[in-house]
Amino acid sequence: MREEEEPSWFARWEEQLPPPEELTPLSQSLITPDLALAFDIPAVPNPNPTPGSNPSPGSLHTHLTPSSGPHFDPSDPSAGASSGPHGGCPDEPARTLKRPRLVWTPQLHKRFVDAVAHLGIKNAVPKTIMQLMSVDGLTRENVASHLQKYRLYLKRMQGISNGGGSSPSGNGSGPLSASDADTERLFASAPVPHHFLTGRSPGPTAAPDPYMPFVPAVPTMSTLQHHHQQMGLNHHQFYNQQRSNALGQFNGFDHHGFLTRSMPAQPPQAISMHHHHRMVGPAGIGIMPSGNGYMDELDMGARGAGGARRELTLFPTGDH
DNA sequence: GTTTCAATAT
DNA sequence: AATATTGAAA
């Protein structure tokens, strides 16, 4: 890809090759974890970082998916760093990397619900929701998938409130238990705007909902979707985006250096806020005595007192 | 061509 | 069960 090659480059082609250790992590991504296991490749042996000290399950981030995707070999510090001084391979080999599956933490879900609430159910489509949430690393399909499930949940809720006395789990025949699902807990962790259930949208004439979360002026479709390719972002969002770039490009880990070098053990998956709060729970598993079982420390955290919204990211951060 | 949505796959 | 991926329809 560079045109300034010497005539005899072929004599020294080896020099261009990256050191072996830079190649290793790639192999991990090229084969599925299953295959790796099947062939006894020690690629992904131990996702378990710190067994000793509980990373506090009550903690806000660090929801490690038990069997999440690519793991970055902790023993390979220089992994993924790539593109040395030569700049041989400038960027994102990561685009093709399979990203770990998203875990919808209550915080994430909260943003989701807020976004949906402000768009109105009619305008709430994956792309728009995603934009409003402005969580970097979050993809449209992530949202689409969640939205699908959320709609089912809402439908169930409607069904209950109208007709029957069945539990939200939709199991008509079942007793009205609180459901066996985590889903219930997750969805219960965020208030469901009433108009969601009535199926109408909070038009301009609608009664003032208690929802006026972020973005002072509710961005309309028109507001959102112009600007060039990079997508319509309102000023707030644009601000947020630009410092972490990505969104469009992301797909892999640009932040590799950090990921692989600094905190190999950090689940690349969890969601983190850019602040240093710590729900230091008692040694016991973090069970918050709140009604719904979730602390919503971030409910306030999401919005700075000054109105500035903190960035939410799926990437590991220095958050310690 | 892009995005949504429901179905289906992991 | 939770999320991802797919494919038809908008």
From TrEMBL:
<dbReference type="InterPro" id="IPR044841">
    <property type="entry name" value="LUX/BOA-like"/>
</dbReference>
<dbReference type="GO" id="GO:0005634">
    <property type="term" value="C:nucleus"/>
</dbReference>
<dbReference type="InterPro" id="IPR009057">
    <property type="entry name" value="Homeodomain-like_sf"/>
</dbReference>
<keyword id="KW-0539">Nucleus</keyword>
<feature type="compositionally biased region" description="Low complexity">
    <location>
        <begin position="75"/>
        <end position="90"/>
    </location>
</feature>
<keyword id="KW-0804">Transcription</keyword>
<dbReference type="Pfam" id="PF00249">
    <property type="entry name" value="Myb_DNA-binding"/>
</dbReference>
<dbReference type="GO" id="GO:0003700">
    <property type="term" value="F:DNA-binding transcription factor activity"/>
</dbReference>
<protein>
    <recommendedName>
        <fullName>HTH myb-type domain-containing protein</fullName>
    </recommendedName>
</protein>
<feature type="compositionally biased region" description="Gly residues">
    <location>
        <begin position="161"/>
        <end position="173"/>
    </location>
</feature>
<feature type="region of interest" description="Disordered">
    <location>
        <begin position="1"/>
        <end position="95"/>
    </location>
</feature>
<keyword id="KW-0805">Transcription regulation</keyword>
<dbReference type="InterPro" id="IPR017930">
    <property type="entry name" value="Myb_dom"/>
</dbReference>
<keyword id="KW-0238">DNA-binding</keyword>
<feature type="region of interest" description="Disordered">
    <location>
        <begin position="161"/>
        <end position="180"/>
    </location>
</feature>
<dbReference type="GO" id="GO:0003677">
    <property type="term" value="F:DNA binding"/>
</dbReference>
<dbReference type="InterPro" id="IPR001005">
    <property type="entry name" value="SANT/Myb"/>
</dbReference>
<feature type="compositionally biased region" description="Pro residues">
    <location>
        <begin position="44"/>
        <end position="54"/>
    </location>
</feature>
<dbReference type="InterPro" id="IPR006447">
    <property type="entry name" value="Myb_dom_plants"/>
</dbReference>
<feature type="domain" description="HTH myb-type">
    <location>
        <begin position="104"/>
        <end position="155"/>
    </location>
</feature>
